[in-house]
Specification:
By secondary structure, this protein is an alpha/beta fold. The protein is about 25% helix and about 20% strand. The strands form seven sheets. An eight-stranded mixed sheet has the order 2-1-3-4-14-13-12-8. The structure holds ligand 1PR.
């Protein structure tokens, strides 16, 4: 019987969903005693090494787990379930790992500007032939970049086991390069198989890997033959295998008939244009019906099958009247997570709320409900602007950078802080809804916003943040917001543009570069995609100009909605174009 060890550290729903999807049954480990009955064991550890190991020990799992592994029965670990096998981790000095494999887990080096966590799709390259490889591809070891879908897997982690040819010769199965670091992305030794990446979030390649492990009878004792000298494999190549991510976005709301639909706005106006004097105008006010582009899960499934690297659902009206547990978005997330095996982000309404019966819910509780339903990240909009305003209010006279706010201004109580504290920074995306504020000719920008002024040679403007889906503009600029929320713990920024939304004229490069220049977390460019070349443009690094500091790189991901909904451009066409431009992408159509 297959058992899944969930010691309560976080969301393991996706893994359970993928096992069921593959037609296998399993039981949850309920007590250390259960480990004696397991004939196969999956340990999908998530979160913090120290907490995971302490929790395993305090609940009495550590020794039975070691005994299980020593018994020779198949063991598969994922993420912390792999790291736990080693001796220790820099993440928790003094906490012992299970010590089944040699070496320590260390933190990625971020001193050279490398972003940590390592988040996204990267190559996992098999280094041995003849080993039990669970379908992991080997051709990358010697060949040049190929687009084999099975090479890319989804990673999200800040710590890794750096590959040491002397220590890991007999357990290394695949290696991955992030920046210039080469590390163990999966190990196999006898009955032990473990991956640093998340097969349950890695699309078809991940499901196939799980299927191969699940369908394998007994554990193998083969360790395989090295395809090249281990010392050679340890050398970084000129380029790592991290891909540019393409995100499909679904703006969801209920239409006038009360059905949950995917809609799409132009500059955030999601209603059809109605003729003056028409019936639609009379019934719905100044505009026509809410645009209906399809059913949320059906459309999301289409994007998953077409190779989207991530799917984002934004609840654009927050369904304010229903109780948290009755939110249509929660039910929708559960269904989506049961069928879509790439990362899911849910946004809209992630804030402190009160049910109609008066029951309050903190933003953390709301987020938890979505994580339990199967979300991997939550996206926060309006509440991020409010949290920024609190930091700005604490600044000294004449100071405008929220990073300079005294530490006492951080209450620890904002949704961003609490969710990032509980689930990690990578689980918190802040969605920014900026609007251009044009400057009158010859007039300077308000001093507080001078750093966000850009110009096209004719006109100059700054970017003001909005709340409530663009309905209210606040005295906060996009740089202030980006810097404040990253200080509070946001791990990624979704940079929309009300001006470019739905226009199909390309992303707002100046906006994206501005945010990029002043922050270090991954950025998702959004709004305005109309052609595959727009993606190539936004992913092409902008060189630093004189006097500029910070990152000269491009964004990590780009998001689009309208062109995909209307089938004007497919996700694969976008990726083909990026590939032609020499960029690393994951090509997978199911
Ligand atoms: O404030 O935390 O409840 O979050 C509300 C969320 O809903 C925010 O993420 C906000 O961006 C979003 N939202 C609110 N109103 C609208 C609207 O359109 N009326 N949609 C809205 C934002 C922007 C993008 C869009 C891209 C790509 N949508 O997500 O999909 O612009 O479009 P394109 O490729 O067709 O140009 P809170």
């Amino acid at each position: 019987m297959l058992y899944l060890l969930d010691y309560g550290a976080g969301n393991v729903r996706s893994l359970a969903n993928s096992i069921r999807k593959l037609g296998y049954d399993f039981k949850w480990v309920q007590s250390p005693e259960d480990l004696k009955h397991a004939t196969k064991l999956l340990f999908p550890g998530v979160g913090h090494f120290g907490q995971a190991l302490s929790s395993l020990r305090s609940q009495g799992y550590a020794e039975p787990l070691k005994e299980y592994i020593a018994s020779g029965k198949p063991y598969m670990g994922i993420c912390i379930g792999m790291q736990a096998l080693f001796e220790s981790s820099d993440e928790a000095p003094g906490v012992e790992g299970l010590g089944v494999l040699p070496g320590a887990v260390g933190k990625f080096d971020s001193s050279n500007g490398q972003k940590v966590p390592h988040m996204g799709w990267n190559r996992a390259t098999a280094v041995k032939a003849g080993a039990v490889r669970y379908g992991l591809a080997e051709d990358e070891v010697t060949g040049e970049s190929s687009s084999r879908s099975s090479d890319h897997f989804y990673f999200v982690h800040s710590h890794r086991v750096a590959f040491d040819p002397n220590l890991h010769e007999d357990c290394a199965l695949t290696l991955t390069q992030y920046g210039s670091e080469v590390y163990l992305s999966s190990v196999q030794k006898g009955n032990i198989f473990a991956t640093q990446f998340h097969p349950e979030k890695s699309g078809k390649a991940g499901l196939e890997l799980l299927r191969a492990w699940l369908s394998q009878g007994d554990a193998s004792s083969s360790t395989g033959k090295w395809l090249m000298e281990p010392s050679q494999a340890a050398k970084p190549r000129s380029k790592d295998g991290l891909t540019k991510r393409i995100v499909a976005c679904l703006d969801v709301r209920s239409n006038d008939q009360g059905d949950l639909v995917v809609t799409k706005g132009e500059s955030y106006d999601v209603r059809e244009k109605a003729e003056s004097g028409s019936a639609a105008k009379a019934t719905t006010g100044s505009n026509g019906e809410v645009r209906n582009l399809g059913k949320p899960v059906d459309l999301a499934m289409r994007y998953y099958l077409e190779g989207a690297d991530e799917v984002t659902f934004l609840n654009i009206t927050s369904f304010r009247s229903s109780a948290l547990q009755d939110q249509p978005m929660l039910a929708m997330t559960e269904i989506a997570a049961a069928t879509i095996f790439v990362p899911l982000t849910i946004g809209g309404g992630i804030k402190d709320t009160v049910d109609p019966d008066g029951t309050p819910h903190s933003a953390l509780e709301v987020a938890e409900a979505y994580f339990r339903a199967g979300a991997d990240k939550v996206s926060i909009g309006s509440e991020a602007v409010t949290a920024t305003e609190t930091l700005l209010a604490a600044l000294a006279e004449g100071e405008f950078d929220p990073v300079k706010a005294p530490a006492s201004a951080l209450t620890g109580q904002t949704g961003i802080e609490r969710i990032a504290g509980a689930y990690g920074n990578q689980a918190v995306v802040v969605s920014i809804d900026p609007r251009r504020v044009y400057l009158e000719e010859g007039k300077p920008a308000p001093p507080a916003h001078a750093w966000s002024v850009v110009s096209d040679g004719e006109r100059s403007w700054w970017y003001a943040c909005t709340i409530k889906g663009g309905r209210e503009t606040r005295d906060v600029d996009v740089v202030q917001l980006a810097r404040a929320v990253t200080r509070l713990g946001a791990g990624e920024l979704l940079v929309n543009s009300i001006d470019a939304d739905g226009q199909g004229k390309g992303f707002d490069r100046q906006l994206v570069d501005l945010v990029r220049r002043y922050t270090t977390v991954p950025v998702i460019a959004s709004s305005g995609a109309g052609h595959p070349s727009h993606f190539t443009e936004i992913f092409t690094p902008k060189p630093l100009q004189a006097g500029e500091s910070g990152q000269g790189s491009s964004v990590e991901a780009a998001l689009a909605a309208g062109i995909f909904h209307r089938k004007e451009v497919s996700i694969d066409e976008v990726k083909a174009e990026l590939e032609k431009a020499g960029m690393e992408v994951r090509r997978e159509t199911l």
